[in-house]
Amino acid sequence: MNLLNLYKRVKVADLKIGNLLFYEIVIGISLLPLIFVVFLLLYIWFAHITDEWAFKVVEYAIKIINAILTGQVMACIIAYGAKLKDSNSNGISDDDERGTK
Prior knowledge:
By secondary structure, the chain is mainly α. The protein is elongated, with a radius of gyration of 19 Å. The model has no long low-confidence stretch (mean pLDDT 76). The protein contains five helices and no strands. 1% of the residues are buried.
């Protein structure tokens, strides 16, 4: 799959701020590091790994989660999604249309 096909699929997806799919994608991407940490901890526990490097990886992943799930980052993502709203489906966001009038 090349980037052009991926771009066409995303454009056809019709993501809008009022659309539940937009929120599902934002939440899903935000939860990826959390899922990674949980599976990493389970792997360390079941494999009986006691090396220091494993716990450093978990600590670093938790720092990534703290950076992603802060309120400011989530507010910016949702605000950017509101900027993408296109009510007449012409490919130009409503904010850009208001700016050009």
